[in-house]
Structures are given as C-alpha cells and as structure tokens.
C-alpha cells in the first residue's frame, strides 16, 4: 500500500519491457477516408508489433546476461553485467516513473528513484525461479517509487495510519464523484471506506500538508510575472495600535481653547521649536514649555477613564 495523497496506490501495469508502442495520431469515426482507414488497420498494428518484437528481444538479451552473470565469479565483471542489464531495461523504469508524474514530485526525481529500484531488482533477481525478469522488476520498481512518496514526499509527515489512509480516501472520492456526478461529502467517503468521519476529516487535513508552498513562489496570472506570494501578503499597520488613542483624543482636542490647540498644532504637526512658537505667540520659550506641559497633562488625565 502506498502513502501519497494523490492516488499513488494505483496499480502500475507497465509493459514488460522498456519498449513503448509509438502513438499514431489518426482521426477516428465513420468519416475517415480510405487512406486513414488503411493506416489505422495497418500502421497501428505494425507499431504494436514492432514494440512487442523489441520487448522479446530485450527480454532474450536480459536472460542471456543473467545466464552469464550466474557463471561469473569476478566482482568487477559481475558489476559490469549488472550495469549492462540495468541499462538495457532502463526504459522500463523510466516508463514506470512517468506514470507517477504530476503528483507533487519532479519527474527527474521519480526517474532517479525508479532507476534505484531497477538496480535493486537486478541485484536480487533469481533466474532459477523461472520468472521473466520484467515480471519481477515492475513491482520492485513501483514499490520503490511508492516508498519515495511515503517517506520523502510529505513536507510535514503525519502519522503512518493517515499516510496509508490518504490514497484510499483519494480513490473513494474519485469513485463516488463518478457515480453521483458531484463531489462526495466526508460522511459518504467514510461510509464507503468503513472508517470514522473524524478519521477522514483528519486525513484530508493532513493531505493539505503534503506539499508546502514557498513564499517566494510566483503568483500565477498576476499582472506582474515577478510577483511572489510574499508580495501579496498584508503587513501590520504601524498606526493600528494607536487607533483607540486617536479616537479617544479627537473630541478632547476639539474642546481645547484656540491658543492651546494652535500651540499643539505648531509643535507636533508642523514641528516648530519652542523658541519659534514663543516668537509667534509673543511669549518666552519657558512659558511655551510650561504651556505644553500643562496641556498634555490635562489631556492625559482626561483620557485615563477611557483607558
């Protein structure tokens, strides 16, 4: 059983060799012309036949190399034969890796993991059991890829039980949606799987943590192609903490005598010095200082009950 939330539990039915039949893009339907019908009846079977022939050739050559490996005692020569077998069957491993692309992991990483699985299959295969190598290698490679999703794919690893439940939930949701034509509820998924609703809810929440997104990731569809997620996040307004004080202070300022209000405006809004204010209103700098202290003290006292 696999453990990724994107349906990696699907059974891989890769071809028995690395050969993949080429896709022939031909129109279908009764409206096809005679040359198109001939192409469909002759070219496609020919392509499949070529792929099957290549499969047989690869497997025959693989069997020959394993026969040579069985009678070889030199470590260096055995390593060389292992490498030749792996190279010969590498297209099969790459084909299996492609089956898992688009599920949260880079294709190159999956190909590397599949190659590791292929080498494990080469080193542990026993020809004396009478099985074709591909029959043994396909589940071995697939298992290696699935373990990669289970052990390396999660950015934040949930409990093992949730990892194992995740692909079952994904499969059940797809089945129910196909049956009803709409997204299933959590209770419907739980009933289909025979588990508690809370367990399905926990599994879905854990699935959201499978792949975390970077704040530096570019926003798709933005006006500026270089806009990142971080650029779209709001910041704390520096004036937010003083909002209550401003609202409380506003009526108090409106009630000040005209001279006191002007002195406060000149000092704190326009940034005048006390000497300049003194010259403006015709008093000494010391008087301005005392005047400011008195005004501020009255304002603080008036604000205390509202604090």
Topology:
Blueprint lengths: L33 H37 L4 H24 L8 H18 L8 H20 L7 H21 L5 H8 L3 H11 L21 H4 L10 H12 L3 H12 L4 H8 L3 H19 L4
Helix pairs in contact: 1-2, 2-3, 2-4, 3-4, 5-6, 5-7, 6-7, 11-12
What are the key terms here?
single chain, RNA Polymerase Primary Sigma Factor, Arc Repressor Mutant, subunit A, 3 domains, elongated, disordered N terminus
Describe the overall structure.
The chain is mainly alpha-helical. It has 3 domains: 34-152, RNA Polymerase Primary Sigma Factor (Orthogonal Bundle), CATH 1.10.601.10; 160-232, Orthogonal Bundle (Arc Repressor Mutant, subunit A); 243-306, Winged helix-like DNA-binding domain superfamily/Winged helix DNA-binding domain (Arc Repressor Mutant, subunit A), CATH 1.10.10. The protein has helices at residues 34-70, 75-98, 107-124, 133-152, 160-180, 186-193, 197-207, 229-232, 243-254, 258-269, 274-281, 285-303. It is elongated and about 115 Å long. Residues 1-32 have low confidence and may be disordered.
């Amino acid at each position: 059983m696999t453990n990724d939330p994107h349906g990696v539990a699907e059974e891989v039915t890769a071809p028995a060799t690395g050969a993949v039949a080429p896709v022939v893009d031909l129109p279908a339907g009764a409206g096809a012309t005679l040359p198109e019908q001939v192409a469909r009846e002759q070219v496609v079977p020919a392509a499949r036949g070529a792929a099957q022939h290549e499969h047989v050739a690869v497997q025959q050559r693989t069997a020959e190399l394993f026969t040579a490996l069985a009678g070889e005692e030199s470590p260096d020569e055995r390593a060389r034969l292992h490498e030749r077998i792996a190279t010969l069957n590498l297209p099969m491993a790459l084909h299996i890796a492609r089956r898992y692309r688009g599920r949260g992991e880079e294709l190159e990483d999956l190909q590397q993991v599949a190659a590791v699985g292929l080498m494990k299959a080469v080193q542990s295969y026993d020809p004396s059991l009478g099985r074709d190598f591909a029959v043994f290698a396909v589940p071995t490679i697939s298992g290696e890829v699935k373990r990669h999703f289970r052990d390396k794919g999660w950015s934040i690893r949930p409990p093992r039980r949730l990892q194992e439940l995740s692909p079952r939930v994904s499969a059940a949701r797809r089945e129910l949606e196909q049956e009803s034509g709409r997204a299933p509820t959590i209770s419907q998924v739980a009933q289909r799987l025979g588990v508690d609703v809370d367990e399905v809810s926990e599994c879905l929440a854990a699935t959201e943590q499978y792949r975390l997104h970077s704040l530096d990731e570019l926003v798709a569809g933005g006006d500026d192609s270089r806009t990142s997620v971080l650029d779209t996040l709001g910041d704390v307004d520096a004036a937010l903490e003083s909002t209550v004080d401003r609202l409380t202070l506003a009526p108090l300022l409106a009630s000040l005598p005209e001279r006191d209000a002007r002195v406060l405006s000149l000092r704190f809004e326009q940034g005048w010095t006390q000497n300049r204010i003194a010259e403006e209103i015709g008093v000494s700098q010391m008087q301005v200082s005392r005047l400011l202290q008195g005004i501020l003290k009255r304002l603080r006292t008036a604000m205390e009950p509202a604090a």
